[in-house]
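Consider the tokenized backbone below.
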């Protein structure tokens, strides 16, 4: 078994275990929902319990690796070339309202490059997995991006950062324009599932600003292994901590990139 396959299997074990925690807490966290300083930026007992389970499994198997987890921050050996980017509950707002669109997202970066990704939606029991060179799967069956090649025939998905009230650098202009230029724009509320849905062809493209590495690390390799493209808004190399991402089936990538650049000068990178 290759190392990547081992990493993939341990990430899968962690994501499935965390998914059990999320299903157990669902509908029972009302007394344990707090805001993390910004209106609407929630954290629940489930986020913390899920993260605890994941950290225990990753640390047990890979004590030398470094970790970036949403609720705990940086942990472990920060000089390691292996970095686990962990979102224990992606879609907390949905979860707190029992809106069934949330997931566990676990990505592994090797020398800064996403190589392994697992995204698990426990409510729908959908397990998305990928590793560099090993392909992308949904519930263990291979998946591929869509073949839509015209923006006017595409369905897109996006999201809005928690600081959208505080900054003009929000996503509103892009959302309006692209709603007119496409068959629709969805706002799912879980960035990792947005990327998983690009990977399996349910949507044709996804863009977002104000996003963190733990939101996208797993989804990036998933989209790439499913045949899609992931870049910065301008089509250049993606910096995972830049806060922005453009991921598509590849066929609409240039047109969506150009539109994002035209719509708002603030998008021009
Ligand atoms: C959020 C979700 C949402 C996205 C936000 C993220 P969280 O993650 O992925 O879809 O629009 O930017 O912060 O806080 O629910 O893990
Ligand atoms: Ca998230
Ligand atoms: Ca989260
Ligand atoms: Ca959060």
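A designed sequence for it:
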């Amino acid at each position: 078994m290759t190392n990547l396959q081992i990493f993939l299997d341990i990430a899968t074990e962690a994501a499935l275990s965390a998914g059990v925690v999320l299903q157990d807490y669902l509908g029972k966290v009302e007394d344990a929902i707090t805001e993390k300083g910004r209106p609407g930026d929630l954290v629940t007992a489930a986020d913390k319990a899920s993260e605890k389970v994941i950290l225990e499994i990753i640390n047990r198997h890979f004590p030398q690796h470094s970790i970036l987890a949403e609720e705990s921050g940086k942990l472990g050996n920060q000089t390691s070339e292996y970095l686990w980017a962990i979102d224990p509950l992606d879609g907390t707002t949905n979860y707190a309202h029992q809106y069934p669109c949330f997931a566990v997202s676990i990505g592994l970066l090797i020398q800064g490059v996403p190589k392994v990704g697992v995204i698990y939606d426990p409510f729908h029991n959908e397990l998305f997995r990928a590793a560099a060179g090993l392909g992308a799967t949904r519930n263990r069956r291979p998946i591929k991006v869509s073949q839509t090649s015209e923006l006017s025939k595409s369905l897109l998905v996006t999201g809005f950062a928690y600081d959208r009230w505080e900054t003009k650098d929000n996503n509103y202009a892009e959302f309006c324009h692209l709603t007119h230029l496409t068959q629709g724009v969805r706002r799912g509320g879980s960035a990792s599932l947005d990327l998983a849905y690009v990977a399996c062809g349910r949507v044709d493209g996804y863009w977002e600003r104000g996003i963190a590495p733990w939101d996208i690390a797993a989804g990036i390799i998933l989209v790439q292994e499913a045949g899609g493209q992931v870049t910065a808004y301008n089509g250049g190399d993606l910096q995972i901590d830049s806060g922005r991402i453009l991921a598509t089936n590849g066929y609409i990538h240039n047109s969506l990139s150009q539109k994002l650049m035209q719509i708002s000068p603030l998008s021009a990178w």
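The first strand starts at residue 33 and ends at 35.
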